[in-house]
Write the structure tokens for this entry.
Amino acid sequence: MAVVATLSKGYDLDYIWKQVDRGPAKDAASYYIQASESGGEPPGRWWGPGARALGFEPGQMVERKPYDLLFGKHQAPDGTPLGRPPDGGRKAADLYARLLAAEPHATAGRKHELRIEATRQTRQSPLFFDLTISLSKSISIFHASLGENARLARQAGDQDGDEYWSALVAEVDDIIWAAVHAGFGYFQKEAGYTRTGSHGTRVHGRETGQWHEAELAVAHWLQHTSRDGDMQLHVHSQIAHVTKTITDSKWRAPDSLGYNEHIGAVAAIVSQHLEEALTRRFGLEWTARDDGHGFEIKGISGQMMRVFSSRRESITADLRERAAQFEYHYGRKPSQRELAHLAQASNFKTRNAKTGTLDVTQLHAGWADKLASTLGVSLASVAPSVWHSATGHATHAHGAKATVLTELELSRAGQKAVALAQQEKSTWTRADVMKYLGRVLPRTGMDPAAAAALLEDLADRALSSAFEPVVCLEAPEPAAVPRSLLRADGRSVYQRHGGIRYATRAQLAMEERMLTQASASGAPRLTRAQAARALGADPAQLTDALTGHAPDADTPHTQTGLRADQATAALSVLTDGKRVSVINAPAGSGKTRVLTDTGRAWAEAGLGPAVGITAAQSARNTLAAGVPVSYNSAQFLGHLPGRRGARGPVETGPAPLLLIDEASTMPGPGPGRSDRLRRGPQREGHPGRGHQPAAGGGERRRHVPARRRPRLRPARRADPVPRRLGTAGQPAAPRRRHHRAGRL
């Protein structure tokens, strides 16, 4: 998929205007190859039924005054209020005054940063959501090659050549716009909703308010360069945080909680539409990306794309340095979460501000020189070298007959998409299937609109078990819903739109088998007296804590330093004789400490070895301080880079106690694929969703009986929420409870 879509909240109305050309209107190529006194990027374009309701036709140029009124004040072009104005403004102003007082000599640029920071800190509702659609580097290079030919022709005074190449630039721009509009047509249908009524209370787990269809207003901005000045086609799509309710025509805030579900599907539709259109027009061919995320233009090499990926290289270099400093300071490598924070810091540090005039003429010349000096390739030659034409011109016939995908090819694509969705998540949505269909469907040059519709059709077929048995995990309504309370999507107005979860029947069968195995008893165990003695605690006191009768289970009483609630969890594991136990407690409650003391007591009692397993090496290093024999999951399963299970799993010996730290983050197998791992949710304190692989012979899995509900309290939380606990004696089996939302 040659498109990546990201979603972020927006508070800065000035950002997008910094490089927009505010001079007289130009043709598409001129925005791309001529210098401008006020910027170099083309102006934005309105889109959406909400924008049309305000008098903005699709494709109409965005002007600053109505833009500020809509996004900044929730007002129509004539000043008519549209629902409530953006909140938090007074608090943000007060905080900004305090921040400015602390920096009295702040420059104009710094003052602008302080305003944005004040807005964020006061939890002000966003002024818009920015759904940024970034095209692949190969498409950006193809587009830049067309622009370079137009620049050279204009520079040489070749009017015919200028017109020819400029027309091609404009045509590709139109193709991009059509693809973006197709993606947002889907987004409007699936995510265009608002809430009405009171949502502050719940009855049987449901909010009491309603959800209704709403019309979105969007400002699209096509931009050509990255922050480092590389060619990078992308579209900022600013979704106004006010929308028109279809049922009563009132303007309300959109239900933005549903946006994220559909970002991947939007990217798939834009990608499919765009690539089919380029194939149909220019005869381009596509090659699969190494990472499996779709396709790049055949003939534009990875080496060429890396020449114009300095932004990624600068982030990677800075991140590598930060990771080395972290390891030197803490004596271990950063965890995945810590690495993500470091990457974000690298992103901001290496981020060049988009200010001043964009000299696209100079950029084009620089791109051409860079490619010629690095690879000895002329930028102008790239586009003609990858399109298919006997004459050397882009003369691929419009509407040419495309290759028709066979039913077998469609079925294979559907099966792959379902498998990829199931591999990533234990439950998934229709939008997830569409995302993966966009990555695996071959590009044939078919009609772009038909290609986008095909994604939805195949997704629906997948959910109807056309490719393999699939189960919907949403319970039906307990009673028939009157037609007056049904939305266009067929659901009750009292149900949130979207969010329906699915899983393959094979996945559910595997989980049931795991649960059955996990519930088995007969594992080695200690008596209560032995366990209490090993933990340095009074057996009667721990029994009272286990049954909830202890007066103060949070007070540390054990000789080993464990709090009573921690010792109770360890006691339960050591004495219940089950094959799998799960500790489920909030962050900071000391789960890792419980694992280490449990392992120590197990080994000292002579029951068998204690073996620690973690998802990441950094977590393994932490666990090894208390459980010396510890592995990350890849080591334990014998994986090598690109070769899963190549070395075979670690031999643990008889009756091991396998201590899985942060088991919810542990990779696990898909149904019937023990060598294929996938990640579960990483929210600490919630039941594991990943499906952990079973180790070799002799293992013992342990499970806490449902009648016992000991609690671990968080060490740094004033008002803890009690959590169900058990302890991992082998990869924690998921305890699936399929309520209407398919949650665990």
In short: Residues 670-709, 714-744 have pLDDT under 50 and may be disordered. The first strand starts at residue 3 and ends at 10.
